[in-house]
Specification:
This protein is an all-alpha fold and 255 residues long. The protein contains ten helices and two strands, in the order αααααααααββα. The chain has one domain. Helix 3 runs parallel beside helix 9 and helix 6 crosses helix 8. The termini are far apart.
């Protein structure tokens, strides 16, 4: 009969050490061992913040979240508030899902993600109603639609479920900031050219009944482009931004 081979004390200690390191790498609430060795503003961590602002922008490159870009970019103020709301929801939902990633059964992960995002959206909505009620009325149902924003759900699935809490937090901020940047640019162009205003203030001059009474550009016969206030123009502006980005970086052009 073959004799049972027993591990030596050195081998047992090595196995225990490996198990300990494995558990540490799978930590739920804190940074993993590999992340602890990495500087909190390392090159990889900075890329999580900067890449979505440019060559990995969720709207112009991944073509996600177009609906809100069409709906709430008539004025600059609601676009900025929407961008801030998405940053808050996305950053903290990424953190929560990453912290719980080893506890969530795979079969119900989408349900858990929706519950986390919905809870954060409800909190943001109540804060807006308390401190920015007029903007909350302008955004209306679109705040609630953050729950089904494909950018947020996509990052939870693609990143938060496979990375640590800190990296997921940075990824959430980066992608939400990239999304918000496009919203703000589109809203800036539409409100300026469509109404001649920014934040509701006249910046191109005052348009009166006659040229003699008008000021600024309106005194020279300038007219606001009413088409800019229509939803299809948001899509056209986004298309122009996509064209400009791909003309600068030819690698983004699909074959």
């Amino acid at each position: 009969m073959a004799k049972e081979i027993k591990n030596s004390p050195e081998q047992s200690a090595e196995v225990k050490q490996k198990e300990k390191e494995a558990k540490k790498d799978a930590m739920v609430l804190f940074l993993s061992n590999s992340e602890e060795r990495e500087h909190f503003l390392s090159k990889d961590n900075r890329k999580l913040l900067s890449d979505p602002l440019n060559d990995e922008n969720p709207i112009t490159v991944q073509v996600l979240g177009i609906c809100s870009a069409l709906a709430i970019t008539v004025q600059l103020e609601p676009a900025i508030v929407m961008a801030i709301a998405v940053v808050a929801v996305m950053a903290f939902s990424n953190m929560i899902i990453s912290a719980l990633r080893n506890l969530i059964p795979n079969r119900i992960r989408i349900i858990v993600q929706l519950i986390v995002v919905a809870s954060l959206v409800a909190l943001v909505d109540q804060i807006l109603k308390a401190y920015a009620y007029d903007v909350s009325k302008q955004l209306s149902v679109f705040i609630g639609l953050i729950i089904t924003n494909c950018i947020i759900m996509g990052r939870l699935e693609a990143f938060a479920l496979g990375h640590g809490v800190y990296k997921s937090f940075l990824d959430g901020i980066g992608n939400a900031a990239g999304y918000g940047l496009i919203l703000i640019i589109v809203a800036f162009i539409r409100e300026l050219l469509g109404a001649g205003k920014l934040f509701g203030y006249e910046v191109l001059g005052h348009k009166a009944a006659t040229l003699a009474e008008s000021t600024g550009l309106y005194a020279f016969g300038y007219e606001n482009n009413g088409l800019m206030l229509l939803s299809p123009m948001a899509l056209i502006v986004v298309g122009i931004l996509i064209w400009v980005q791909r003309s600068r970086n030819r690698k983004l052009i699909e074959d």
